[in-house]
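REVIEWER CHECKLIST
Item 1: Sequence provided? yes
Item 2: Single chain? yes
Item 3: Sequence as submitted:
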Amino acid sequence: VRRICGRNRPLPTGGAPPKLPFWAFRRTCAQVFRASALPVAPARRVPWVCGDSRTALDNAPQADFLFSCPPYGDLEQYSDDPRDLSTMDYPAFTASLGGIVRAACHRLKPDRFACFVVGDFRDKRGNYRNFVSDTISAFLSAGCHLYNEAILVTQVGSLPVRVGKQWTTSRKLGKTHQNVLVFVKGDGKRAAAACNLTPGDNQ
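Item 4: Structure as written out by the authors:
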């Protein structure tokens, strides 16, 4: 969904993606959610909720698995709504994201896994924010444990063309990966066993 609603949507020629008014962003996401429900689970209706995770999670059902690919701070701003994480400065962003992680982990069943796909990004001075470590810290504070990590190699695209000048002027390496972080709430072996349960097992 984020590929359509967020940072990976197609860019117009010669520029960055336009910022959507919040009402348009919500309407677009809601349409995508409804369209994607049938392919995801054709045998049942999937209830998609489009809203502020800081409040919507209070009424969320218990979950067997948690997955997210959150905004990378203010690297790209998705809307003009002040509740949008991408409109916040980094301290406010990490504080809000930490609250969302805590609320989401509270709804996660015991002995279950959670996965966040994140990648570090630079501040206005060109230094890394340390976003990957901050994400790990948020989960540790929520009572989860780092269980697995993988590197997701993304498309190279125009990086080979850009990296030469980038290296010459600033000695910055080209980045073409994201970090796949897997956390466990409770016991890892019991969480692994739960992956083999069927819906009728009621566990």
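Item 5: Key structural point noted by reviewer: Confidence is low (pLDDT under 50) at residues 1-15.
Item 6: Recommendation: ____
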